C-alpha cells in the first residue's frame, strides 16, 4: 500500500510504525523512534532520519539489525519485502549448483563475520552478487559491518520509495 508523506506526518506513532515498521528488516523500533522527527519534508529526509536512528544506536543494536536479515538465496522464512527483492535478482530460481554455492558462501561469511551477507539486490544479478560475496569475504569485520549497514540503508531507501509518495 502506498502512503503519502502528508498522511505519514499526521499518523499516530502506532499507525506510523504499522506503515513503516518493515522498512528496516524486522526492526520496527527504527520507525518508532523516527516518528519523533516529524514532520518530514520529503522521502529523502524521512530516510535520513531513519538512518540517523540506526547510526546513533549501540553497536549491539546495529548487529541485531544486521542479523535480522536472511541469508541470500536461502529457503528460510523471511519478510515479504526480502522475498520480493531476492526474487527480483533471480535468487528464487537458483539451480542446485548455484544454491550450493550461495549456501557455501553464506556459511563462510557467517563464520568469518558472525552475521549474514547483506547486499541491496535490486540492481544486481546472481553473478554480481556472487562476485560481491567473494570480494567482501576479504574485508575486515569492522569494514564489513559498516558495509552491511550501508547496504541496509540502501535497501531501506528502495523500500521507502516503493511505499511512500511525495
Blueprint of the fold:
Blueprint: E1 3-4, H1 5-10, H2 13-20, H3 29-34, H4 43-55, H5 59-67, H6 80-88, H7 96-113, H8 126-136, H9 141-163, E2 164-165
Parallel strand pairs: 1-2
Helix pairs in contact: 4-9
Keywords:
mainly alpha; single chain; 166 residues; 9 helices; 2 strands; UraD-like; two-stranded parallel ribbon
Based on CA atoms alone, the radius of gyration comes out at 16 Å
| Overall strand count | 2
The SS-based structural class is: mainly alpha
Give the overall pLDDT as a whole number: 90
- Strand order of the biggest β-sheet: 1-2
Distance between the termini: 14 Å
Bin the helical content: 55-70%
User: What kind of sheet is the major sheet?
Assistant: 2 strands, parallel
CATH architecture annotation: Orthogonal Bundle
Structure description:
The two termini are 14 Å apart. This protein has a single domain (3-165), classed as Oxo-4-hydroxy-4-carboxy-5-ureidoimidazoline decarboxylase (UraD-like), CATH 1.10.3330.10. Helix 4 runs antiparallel to helix 9 (141-163). The chain contains nine helices and two strands, in the order βαααααααααβ. It has a two-stranded parallel ribbon with strand order 1-2. 62% of the residues lie in helices and 2% in strands. It has 166 residues and is mainly alpha-helical.
Offer a concise description of the structure:
By secondary structure, this protein is mainly alpha-helical. The chain is built from 9 helices and 2 strands, in the order βαααααααααβ.
